[in-house]
Design brief:
Elements lengths: L8 H15 L23 H13 L8 E5 L5 H8 L3 E6 L2 H14 L4 E5 L7 H4 L3
Parallel strand pairs: 1-2, 2-3
């Protein structure tokens, strides 16, 4: 699921800086390896993220690691990433290329294998195109 960081600290910072120049600021401050944060470590607790994760865990009839999670309008991927880090096979769907590029960057540097991001309109999501969640 998660492996060690796939890039050096310098490469991660360079990639982050390049994405910011090309696509602008991130929607969320996502922690990356080596103490790097996508928003510069704004020191804001991820309370909403933790609540949603806990609610999903409480309402599921099985462990998150046995779940398949769909994150519609995933922005730069913080919720998708968190579910994947807790073992869920996760698919994030986002229409904006900028957000998908940021999400894919985080997935790569965090080494998350049970996570997929797709650039698509959420109105295209169906059982046939994405499967069961």
């Amino acid at each position: 699921m998660v492996s060690s960081p796939r890039q050096s600290k310098e490469a991660i910072q360079q990639g982050l800086d390049e994405l910011k120049r090309k696509y602008g600021d991130w929607a969320y401050d996502i922690p990356l390896p080596y103490g790097i944060w996508t928003g510069g470590n704004l020191q804001k607790p991820h309370t909403r993220l933790k609540r949603i994760l806990q609610i999903a865990s409480d309402l599921s009839n099985k462990p998150l690691s046995d779940c398949r999670v769909l994150d519609l309008g995933c922005l730069d991927g913080i919720f998708s990433i968190e579910f994947a880090l807790h073992g869920a096979t996760t698919v994030g769907v986002e229409i904006r290329e900028a957000n998908i590029q940021k999400a894919l960057f985080c997935k790569e540097v965090l080494g998350i294998d049970n996570l997929d991001f797709r650039q698509d309109d959420v109105r295209n999501v169906s059982l046939e195109s994405y499967g069961m969640f």
